Amino acid sequence: MSARYRNRAGGRVLGVWLIALLVALVATVQIRSQVEVERSFAGTDTASLAFLIDNLHRANDSLQAETADLTQRQLTLQSGSDTAADQVLTDEATRLRAAEGLVPVHGPGVVLVVSAAGLQALDLQDALNNLAVGGAEAMSVNDRRVVLGVPVQQTPGGVTIGGVQVQPPWTISAIGDANRLAQAADLMTQQMRADRRVRQATYRVEADLVIRAIVTERPFVYGS
Amino acid sequence: MRENGVMSRRRVGSIFVVAAVALATGFLVAGQVKVQLLTPSNQVARYQALVRSVQELEASNAQSRLKIAVLRSQIDALEAAAAQRSAATQALQSQVADLRLHAGLTPLHGPGVEIDIANGVPGADSGGEVGYLVNFKDVQDLVNLLVANGAEGIAVNGRRITPLSAFSGSGGQVIIDQGPPVSAPIMVLAVGDRLRMEAALGDPSGLPDIRAREVQYQLQISFRGRPDLALPAYDSSLDTRHVGTL
To answer: Whose C-alpha in A45, A183, A201, B242 is 20 to 30 A from the C-alpha of B79?
Structure first.
């Protein structure tokens, strides 16, 4: 009897140990899995990663287009002809003058009209940056040309661009990829309309927008 | 005999009950394992796939930018050689060199300021807000402040700012133009009117958002004047595909 009892008791203990082992195994796997998830997600969420991937795809496409353009320019220059070199340099000068805002330009784009009271220079800087992120290649506000080197500042009298006051309503013209700019403008005007300071914010897409205003180049005094 | 038969039926019944409970527990555990273990491991795999994509795209981005820098340097040499042969070409090359300098396509050096900005600490009551992180708007505000106060050239963590530069990002990531994201600590170098820039950076009314978060989250910003700073050339695309001159 006592031997049978010991056997049965031993079996029960073994069963309890097996169950405890199984529970410990499941718990360990569970905890490790959760820790791994938490460690992986530390820093960046999946939405931010998706945003990054989208951005990097577009950036890499742009870089590849630039590489192809530069390779073509290099081949033209390697032909050794003076005419070819002059043409390459003339084209480059035209492109850079447009990028720096030194010449009037035209192209597809959007025009935003923002009627508001109390908007600050920071609001205008944000709007211009949003359009630049949306692919703006040339911009003006109330017929004042804006590139990143032109100061947009807050003064007691209001917002100034390059030292000249720009009173609302602001008419912001941006030339670039019209589809991307329209998406950016749509989002911007929605957000602006939610701002109590903004009376009206609208935009329209134009197939051929003209920006005649130019920036006067300042010679460098300190940098060389 | 009858009592033994009843006992035996009871034992068989209890064994069935125990077996049924064990089976149900087994199904429950299996279900729990499936829901609680497999889903997170799928999430990890998906997340890791996204991270791998970002890493591959960043590697390709770095390669392209390196290639662009090499091509621009080779083109410079070819243009210089062409300029040796003709006065007209030389005049054109000089104009282009000046335009490239202003556009940030060539290295720049001179006196200026170095600004260092680093993340603060999350507040106890921040409730998931990321105000303690340096974000793209901080960099944008800093660049605009420097531009308004005599900067002639600016670089952010080694990325040169151009007339068409744009800032974006989410959380603590800062994306400048076509480069990979950068995050704090961020070093901004600006060549230009050093005294004006130092005065603007020292003005407590400037950079209001950063100043407020300096107090709330201990965001760290410091600057110092430097007699000679070197800025690298822009190494990405200055995209003007949609713009035509009149």
So the answer is: B242
